[in-house]
Amino acid sequence: MTHLRVIPLAAGECLNISALTQRGAAWRVQTYPAGFALLLHPLLGPVLFDTGYSARVQASMRRWPGVLYGLLTPVRLDPRETALSQLARLGFAPDEVREVIVSHLHADHVGGLRDFGAARFSLDAATYAPLRDLRGVAAIRKAFMPELLPDDFEARLHPLDFQPAPPGLSPFAVAADVFGDGSAYAVKVPGHAAGMIALIVRTTPEAVLDGDGAGLMLLAADAAWSVWGLREGLEVHPLARVIFDDAAAERRSAEQLRQWLLAHPRAGVFVSHDAPETGHV
Ligand SMILES: [Zn+2]
């Protein structure tokens, strides 16, 4: 069975208040990496799961209305940290990336899309539909910066095909077999953003979906602010919920991921805004 190598990376970081990202934590400013992942597919080569920030995000944050976004979550980015720069150091030209899987369209996940001109963008169509006509402050309120999307974004958009999920993905009812070879499944985890997806990836030839999770990796995007919070089912501060697209759906999605992890205790977890777990996979 096909398996992928997963390399968790981060492009920049944002500042936020700990007490908002986790109920009961201190009221102090903390930095959170803007994580993304490089997936190495044996036939397709380098595939990205999100991109993190780019200098374009910072440029937009210097202008109205992006400045509002920058006030809420200030961004730090070393130019050597962008997805483009890190891939170059790993020996990949930008046009070798033929696929970017997009968890959702918040600016810290799509900041680098314009750097990958040969890629198609695989996502849940439900994440783009509510945003496509938003501009100005209405877009910023959804953490969406339309200018980050390439001009031909719609032509390159590849809606994921969700089908009844294999039993090993329970409690998720549907899943999309991203590459058609069983190496990566997208599952729906809406709430933080409409149409957000997580990925469940086979990282070893022996990994099976209906085992104990050995060799599986969950890339949970923004379904939680920390791996610990996701595994333990911790809640964010009620104030932080106002930015959620749908707070009830957010709780439901986090609970489904927690249930899946309980059934797959050896699976590794990567959430976008926390350091990658070690000791798994
Ligand atoms: Zn987000």
Automatic annotation (TrEMBL):
Its cofactor is Zn(2+). Keywords: Hydrolase, Metal-binding, Zinc. The keyword Heme does not apply. Residues 47-199 form the Metallo-beta-lactamase domain. SUPFAM superfamilies: Metallo-hydrolase/oxidoreductase (SSF56281). Belongs to the metallo-beta-lactamase superfamily. PANTHER family: 102 KBASES UNSTABLE REGION: FROM 1 TO 119443, QUORUM-QUENCHING LACTONASE YTNP-RELATED-RELATED. This is Metal-dependent hydrolase. It comes from Deinococcus marmoris.
